[in-house]
Known about the structure:
about 0% strand; transmembrane helix; transmembrane; membrane
Amino acid sequence: MSTSDHLLLFLHIGFAIFTLGPLTAATMSTPRYIRRRNVVVLRYLHRVTQIYGVTSLGIFLFGLLLAQGDLAEVWLSASMTLFIVALVLLLIVERDQRKAAHLLEVAAEKEGAAPAGPAPEDEKGAGKDTGDAARPGSGDDIAQVERGRIAAISGVVALMWLVILLLMVWNG
Length: 172
């Protein structure tokens, strides 16, 4: 392996470590802040997803440069395909984050106050689930579809990253 190949490998691994970790953490923690109706943190997680999603393209670019003429290898083709599918799924997560933040802001305007943090708990029902989330029209059902879709897609994307990692370690 030449010096330039070592540099490319270093950049490929560095981008993978420093972009996929924060990206996965941001997408997987988003449903929690949708449930808490914390628009400030939700906007921050949306921005983190955008920034790290774009910078994760560096992983693909440096990996492609490392592969050079070995694109006929099945494991490389599978890894690149999984990576592209994961990026498309992240676009869906990004869209749902944006939509959930908008829905929560609209709901806060209708209520007359913009809750920045968790909703205050009732003294009698502190720590109890009152079942309001299942009742249509209650405050807890805002962005419920987006929350579920983000949770599911984030888990699938995290599994894709693990499969790609296993393919790289096994065959690299």
